[in-house]
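Sample pair:
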Amino acid sequence: MRVVPFLLAFAGVSIGSIVHSQEVERGSGPYPAIFEARDDLPNHVVYRPTDLAPARSDGLPIYVFGNGGCSSDGTSSRNHLLEIASHGYLVIASGTILLGARPAVPTPPQPGAKLTTETETRLLTDAIDWAQRENRRAGSPFEGRIATDRIAVSGWSCGGLQALNAAQDLRVTTSVIMNSGFFPEGTNPLRGVVSDKALLKTLHGSVLYILGGPTDIAYPNGTDDYRRLGNIPAAMVNIPVGHGGTYMQPHGGVGAEVVTTWLDWKLKGTKAAGARFTGPACGLCNDPRLTLERKNF
């Protein structure tokens, strides 16, 4: 099986069988991360700690991600994804290694127009299937090192809609919906991506919405989703940067910091991470970089 890994790279340096000219981060966490293409998981990019040995005892929880615009560039949010992987997660994005200079920020379509997506929602659950197989497969570098019962689905914009659909899978522990939310009935401009507010009633586990404040084109949809959520634990964070988020800021910016904290709480049970979301004096309650709302905790 051919695996093409990407480490820190500079102009003219060959990485595996591919050459590119852009420095690639490895994350700020304790486990420097890489991303790679794998023949046994086509149409996906896998982000993981370079050294899998530390995962032997407790396993890597899973974080699957749908790209902005439902694009096929599985590296378009690579700083965000490498940062999460560097904190001890197996991260899988839809798409392939295209190394776009920056993620494409989706723009609203013309009235009545339909947008065609480059990836399918099923790729998120395909990633979960693959991770579960690899954890069992004799001889796999991931054998016994994946926490297959601790799974988060996530995505940005159109990818967030894909995540909301994939979150119906009962294997999912928590959902992280970024700069996204279901469109009101009859206004979905996307072909092939379901947008149905009724699905909010069937979400399970817990949900974190991360929005870009009132200038985010997804702000009305995301805040409406949050208001409609029923009895599951939910939080909504607004980072006032608009729809583009902080995905390609160094180490994924404050967005990746918040997501990693949520995952550490919900998938690893880390009390210090939970304290940043819970209680009247929670760590994120008075953070000047963002606003936080919570319910059903």
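The chain has a mean pLDDT of 89.
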